[in-house]
Amino acid sequence: MGHLAQQTKAQNKKDKTPRKQMEFARRVVDIVRDVAVELHPGKRHVDVALDSDLDRDLGFDSLGRAELILRINRAFKVELAEDLLAEARTPDDLLQAVLKEGPASVPALKTIRKRPAKTVAEPRTAQTLLDVLAFHVRNHRERTHIILTHGKDKDEQITYGMLDKAARAVARGVLDQGRNAGDRIAIMLPTGADFFTAFFGILYAGCVPVPIYPPTRLSQVEDHLRRQGGILRNAQTSLLITDSKIRPLGAFLRGLVPDLKAVETVEELSRGGELEQLVKTAPGSTALIQYTSGSTGDPKGVVLSHANLLANIRAMGAAMNASSRDVFVSWLPLYHDMGLIGAWLGSLYYGAEAIIMSPFAFLATPARWLRTIHNYRATLSAAPNFAFELCLKNITDEDIEGLDLSSLRMVANGAEPVSPDTITRFIDRFEKYGFKPGAMAPVYGLAEASVGLAFPPPDRAPIIDRVRRDTMSRHGKAAPADPADASALQFVTSGSPLPGHEVRIVDPAYHEVPDRQEGRLEFRGPSTTKGYFRNEVKTKDLIRDGWLDSGDKAYIADGEIYITDRIKDIIIRAGRNIYPHELEEHVGNVPGVRKGCVAAFPDKAQGGAVERLVVLAETRETEAQKLENIRAAIVDASLDLLNMPPDEVVMVPPHTVPKTSSGKIRRAAAGALYRSGVLIRPAKALWWQLTRLSLATATGRVFGLWRRAVEYGYGAFWWLTVVLLALILWPVVLILPKRSWRYATIRGFAKVFLRLMGLSLDISGAVGVPERRVIMVSNHASYLDSLVLLAVFPGEFSFVAKQELAPQIIAGPFLRRLGTLFVRRVDPKGGIADLAATMDAARRGERIVTFPEGGISRRPGLMEFRLGAFELAAKTGLEVVPVTITGTRSILRGGTWFPRRGSIAVHIGKPVKAKGNDFSAAVTVRDRVRSEILAHCGEPDLAGMP
Fold it and tell me: 88 pLDDT band (50/70/90 cuts)?
């Protein structure tokens, strides 16, 4: 560092012009970017900074580095030392070398590396959530990202760097557990630092997070675990991350979920150190499976890609005018899309501070939400409608004396039907505390659209539409009501579709309806899901001609969207549509009824098709007379609202009405409970619930043990066969005098092995590989690949293998007898020398076989191709034959020695010849060959991903 400072000081004396100093840095960055773009043409944006890692961030291999040094030499008219080919780690290293050799210099370039200001840019070029976090870590790793409030002024701050470091440790633990990229991993954690760490740790490992909510009441632990077990079975989760308190319940889930291999805590996963190289992730790969409310037997997992999430976050941010100047206070559960995506990931993207509270902190003391907004001068927040109602009900003036809510720009009110009465009363109550009417923003969204779909303009007070009840109930026509009409229905606008998204209202024949006509709401846009995970039936119901069915009824007036109710929940009685949420809200105001704990649902009359109206209401009262009085009051409330009484009113104790994890009433489940006749049945004792769970999991455990026994038996037979064949083959190959005999022998052994293991082999494409000199290029999915190529192709070859195998006692002599060419992968100068040796072999008539990915990925997908083989093809004029192997990855994955049954396919492509002998020709032939293999491998493209 001292030597560098002296150099910098000396150069400063020669040229003190800041503009020229900056120009040198920009020129180096531009050259690096140009070469990176050529190397990774599939990547639309290459983000290059002075501290970017040439290997990890930009994917430069030996030949790419050589081309980079060459262009820098030309551009700056210098001759950089050869050592720089291997030693340069970042563009800044190259810059410093140029300054040392050239006539002009710059100092430390503080303008480029300056500490981040309070306002930071958004990562506009990010294509994945990993890109987003990497952007913030790279630019301001010490900036506060999350503040966890624990009460009593005990705040816990998490910076971007802290999150990155902790997540890398979890990722290492996940991969060490034997999980493979693409595996689904469940997170059952309460709000806390571990959740954020686990979420990004799973993404860093290339796996897919599946957030599920932890049990909150032991009185319902059986029902909870059965529901979560249904989700985990559908997701085929292999690992559950939880905490030490919940972990004992994981044993029951392992019995209910055959694919669940382990239950671990964040602490346990983090003991092995940090993962240095993240698993590559493509924009279209799954970033999250968000399970919507559903029954245990039919869970719906909404599949959301990185591209979906970023599109939604950017669209919502545009509608909210979000920036890094914002502060978002949220108590929303992190397993729910509004809290996970809207509050946390949205704040992450824009660099806004996220102040995170526990949902239980809010439920216990609603005033704490408002006080936290006051304390942190929050500008944004969000909550379902019931939260505003809870504030109105439970907060006294004494609780919030001195409260100032004037900092709020927008509070999104969504996730359930928005009550016009609630928002009006909330504004009236809290306006004197600085709450602006324009800050109340009724929004509309659903998991199938990531989270948000429609937002009102910022700073506009809510618009409430009053429509005639009779025309709406009977004909679905939202005709404006007279101001004096006391029976009018009221609906709140959710604004307009987010930028880039579309909404339409259709009739039962899927024809668009005119304004103010109620119908089914359909939508489409870049943030919409491609379907439900492993649920083709529900996916077909969801998507039709590119439009997604929201399951909601709505109408449009003056370009504004008004949600009326869920289609499946609307009750049709006497030719009229009854909106259950309106009746539930009205009944919730009856004294003695627990507000927000009322369910109205239809029930078919016995022996007929007529729908009866049933109201299920929770109350704490137990005396018979008081219950009868409440029941009569509910009937009166229904008559007052609908001019008709319910057919039946059922009074139930607290916590009986089923709800979703986000607090929505599960009306279908309430109806099922009503029809089952078990509404008033007392809760089972905990010991009995656990006993039932133990019995239920016994079958699963027996099946799991049998399946594992079969798998281990196959694995043992596999490796016993490998050892026996190797003991015979190794000395034979070393003894046989002719190379052709060695290849014939090993080819016969390869075919015998595949047959013994029950591995079928299908060959397609070209008839065979030309006998003339060629270079065979194949994807590298498994350790089996070389064996498969030997079994498929006749004749002799020169395999290209990593230098690390040459000195091994067993592998070295064996491979040398087969004519293997060894290359150095991590030594740039040595790599170029090895290329020359390979070129000599090709000129001697050898047919070269190489795997240009350079290694085996745990995750399905085609990695970038190194240029060595294609540089060889360009220099020698040899044709390149693309060979695609599929099936071997699932049989024997990289990083594991546990084999599984499967089938193998080999596709032989047409030879490709380079048109020229320079760097550009090598890149062109590489891209053509890689495109051919990508088209047949059936795996995602992982090139150019961070």
Answer: confident
Same domain, 615 and 721: no
CA distances to 71, 222, 562 from 475, rounded to whole Å, are 73, 44, 16
Identify the CATH number of the domain in which residue 286 sits. 3.40.50.12780
CA nearest 158: which of 362, 322, 325, 356? 356
Say if residues 517 and 476 touch (Cβ distance below 8 Å): yes
**CB neighbour list of residue 545: distance below 8 Å, 6 or more residues apart:** none
Which domain covers residue 668, as residue numbers? Answer: 584-683
Please report whether residue 395 resides in a domain.
no
* Any domain includes 106: yes
Over residues 18-36, mean pLDDT: 78
Nearest alpha-carbon partner for 586 in 615, 545, 627, 628: 615
Q: Which helix (H) or strand (E) holds 714?
A: helix 686-735
- Residue 914 makes CB contacts below 8 A (sequence gap 6+) with 870, 873, 874, 877, 880, 921, 922, 924, 925
CB atoms within 10 A of CB 482: 9
Q: Rounded to the nearest 5°, which phi and psi values hold at 653?
A: -70, 165
On whether both 651 and 758 belong to a single domain, the answer is: no
Round to whole Å and give the CA distance between 474 and 358.
44
DSSP E strands: which ranges in 743-900?
760-765, 774-778, 798-802, 821-823, 848-850, 879-886
**Residue 896 CB partners (closer than 8 Å, separation 6+):** 178, 180
Angle at 239 between CA 237 and CA 243, to 5 degrees: 125
Mark whether 203 and 87 lie in a shared domain.
Answer: no
- Alpha-carbon gap, residue 461 to 483, rounded angstroms: 19
The position carrying tokens 């006294």 is 396
pLDDT at 434: 93
Residues 750 and 665 in one domain: no
Phi, psi of 842 (to 5 degrees): -65, -40
Shared-domain flag, residues 732 and 679: no
> How many domains in the chain?
4
Q: Tell me the C-alpha distance between 785 and 885, whole Å.
A: 7
On average, the pLDDT of the chain sits at 81
CA atoms within 13 A on the CB side of 343: 30
Given the DSSP bridges, would you call strands 560-566 and 798-802 parallel, antiparallel or unpaired?
unpaired
Evaluate whether residue 58 is within a structural domain: yes
Look at the alpha carbons of 541, 542, 546, 549 in this order and tell me if their dihedral is positive or negative: positive
β partners of residue 799: 849
Same domain, 173 and 321: yes
Q: Are 178 and 386 in contact (CB under 8 A)?
A: no
Name the pTM for this structure. Answer: 0.64
Give a yes or no: residue 946 inside a domain.
Answer: no
Highest mean pLDDT among 215-219, 225-229, 897-901: 897-901
Residue 712, both tokens: 């281990």
